[in-house]
Design a protein that fits this description.
By secondary structure, the protein is an alpha+beta fold. The protein folds into 2 domains: about 1-55 and about 255-394, no CATH class; about 60-220, no CATH class. It is about 50% helix and about 20% strand. The chain is built from 12 helices and 12 strands. The protein has helices at about 1-15, 25-55, 80-85, 130-135, 160-165, 200-205, 225-235, 245-290, 290-300, 305-335, 360-385, 390-394; strands at about 60-65, 100-115, 120-130, 140-145, 155, 170-175, 180-185, 195-200, 215-220, 240-245, 340-345, 350-355. Strands 1, 2, 3, 4, 5, 6, 7, 8, 9 and 10 form a 10-stranded mixed beta sheet that branches. β2 (about 100-115) and β3 form a beta hairpin. The chain is elongated, with a radius of gyration of 30 Å.
Amino acid sequence: MFTRLNQIGALLTMGLQTLPQRKSTAGVVVIGIASVVAVLVSVLAIAQGVERTLGDSGRNDTAILLSSGADDEVDSLVSRADYDAIAGMPQVATAASGRPLADGEVVTAFPARFKNSSEEGSVTLRGLGTYGLAIHPSIHISHGRTFRPGLTELIVGAGVARRFRGFADGDRVKIGNSFWTVVGQFKSDNVHDSEVLADVRTVQSVMDMGNDYNSAYVRLKSADELQSLEEAVASNPTLHLETQSEPEYFAAQASGLSAALTVAAYVMGIIMACGAVFGAIHSLYIAADARRIEMATLRAIGFSPGSVLVGFLIEALFLAFAGGCIGGVLSWLLFNGHVVTSMYGGMSQVVFQLDVTAHLVGLGMVWACAIGLLGALLPALSTSRRPVTEALRG
């Protein structure tokens, strides 16, 4: 065993010392694997950003009610009568004034231009009622003031202000046929950061949306009241609504987009990995052929085929590790902290930040090593099994 380890160490040392003479073939392996890792990590960072932004939204003691069969707020319709019935239920907490902590909200979208681009995206406009900000405590006014009821005034999420033009304090934003004045900006650590907010009655009137809502939010007396509220709503024959906690709703919204991005990352990764494997096979066959006399000489003086095989694989693993490190560093430099937008709810963009985490880079390194080993296996087997006389004859 000790002799074999010495042989493997000697082979690896010789292989690394001759890398400068084989820089073209080694470069193909390293660059191919680095490209796979960079793409895989970057797309997975997008999926993780979506899941974090949407999946971490909401409070367990806040429920959202949508019309039966609606997948999101845009497709939902909650009548004023339904809202009044929900607000009066005993599971709903009350404000200091004694009024229920409930809020009927409307959601729509309007076009806006990205900063540093002529392209258009969509921004979500959410109409809030009297207790809207109390029910969404993650929303904090960072500067300016909140909107006033009855006026066409907006407060803008920090994500919208970062990605879209024309949302600074005092700007006039055209939504539909009306102009709205930006009176403040807010920050939120969830999906609301990608929205602009206004008075619900004003939005309904100006956008000709009638008196109905898209959703009803209620603050529960405690998170334990959710099941009781669900049962009360389900047992009321006049209500055709479905009840979810806020985290459940936003996690469901995140799962579809996050899953699609994750699948896309792995599909692209597999396609690129196949290319990298074949590139590695080709390059390592060339490298093995260039070293055939060297390998045959070592075999002739007593190096075992197993030592040659393992030494060749470890050398390939070293190249793969280098490629994985380069790909991970590139993805971190280019995308970590980068703010991007993605479609959400089928109508507008959600703004979120990419975090290239150690977990994602580690996953990329696993892929890099697997690609390196797969690409090196056939050349290593061929080199270790080639008869000494045949190799020397070349």
